[in-house]
Amino acid sequence: MKILLVEDEVRVVQFVQKGLREEGHAVDVSYDGEEGEFLGEVNDYDLIILDLMLPKKNGLVVCRELRDRGVATPVLMLTARDSVEDKVRGLDAGADDYLVKPFAFEELLARVRALLRRRSETRSPVLTLADLELDPMSRMVTRGGKAIRLTTKEYALLEYMMRNPRKVLSRTLIGEHVWDMNFDPESNVIDVYISHLRAKVDKGFDRELLHTLRGQGYILTDQDLAH
Ligand code: CA
After folding, report:
1. Do 153 and 103 belong together in one domain?
2. Is 226 domain-assigned?
3. Dist. CA 217 → ligand 1 center (Å)
4. Predicted confidence (pLDDT) at residue 185 exceeds the cutoff of 70
C-alpha cells in the first residue's frame, strides 16, 4: 500500500518509515503541513498518517481542507496531546483514527492495518485475473487454486498490478506506487522483482499473465498481446 507520512520530527519519521517499509508499504514523507496537504491531494494514497502540530499548517487544518476537496483517503492523526477535546476536534476534522505520542510501533501498525483493511473492504475484496487470485485481507495469492508464496515486496508489486489489470504500467508509475516518490526509475530493481514474480506466477502455467512491453513498462493481462 502507498502511505503518506506528514510529520516534522525526524526521529519519528525515521522509525515509522523504516517499520512501514519493512511491512512492504511505499512511504512518502513530508515535513510540513503545506507540502503534506499538496501531496495528499495530488497523489492517490491508501492512508495518510498526519501529525497534529506541524510547521506551516497544522494537521487539523490539513485534514479538514483535504476532506473539503473530496479526498477520502483514511487519515490517522498523531498527536502529543491526549485530551478528549483534541480527539474530538481531530475526528471532526475528518480523521478516521487517532494515536497519542509516544506510541509503540506495534500499536501504530495495528491501527494502520485496521484502516487499510477497512479500505480494502470497501474496495473489491478478492482481486481476480483469469485463474490468479489475490486476497488483500489475508495476503493469500493463488493461481489455479495453488498457493503462491511471495515476499512482502513481491506481494506489494503484484497487488498494485492486480488493482490495475490490463493497463501498461511504466517503471515510474510502479516505482511511485510500490516504492516511493524518491524511487530512481533508471534502476533495475523493478525488472528484478518482475522476473521473480514471473517465475512464481507464470512458470508452469499455459497462459502468461505478466508481460514486459519494451520501452513502455509492464502489463498484467489475460488477453493476447499483439507482438
Ligand atoms: Ca509535530
Report:
1. no
2. no
3. 39
4. yes
Q: What is the mean pLDDT of the chain?
A: 90
Is there a domain that residue 227 lies in? no
Q: How far is the CA of 6 from the centre of ligand 1 (A)?
A: 9
CA of 72 to the centre of ligand 1 (A): 23
CA 212 to centroid of ligand 1, rounded, Å: 43
- Residue 115 sits in the same domain as residue 204: no
How far does residue 9's CA lie from ligand 1's centre (Å)?
6
Give 119's pLDDT tier (boundaries 50, 70, 90): confident
CATH number of the structural domain spanning residue 84? 3.40.50.2300
Q: How far is the CA of 53 from the centre of ligand 1 (A)?
A: 4
What separation in Å is there between the alpha carbon of 7 and the centre of ligand 1? 6
Position 124 pLDDT exceeds 70 = no
| Domain that residue 18 falls in | 2-121
For residue 58, the model assigns a pLDDT of: 94
Domain for residue 57, yes or no? Answer: yes
Choose among 114, 121, 122, 119: nearest CA to 98.
114
Residue 96, CA distances (Å) to 87, 92, 157, 198 in order:
11, 9, 26, 37
What is the grid cell recorded at 194?
A: 518482475
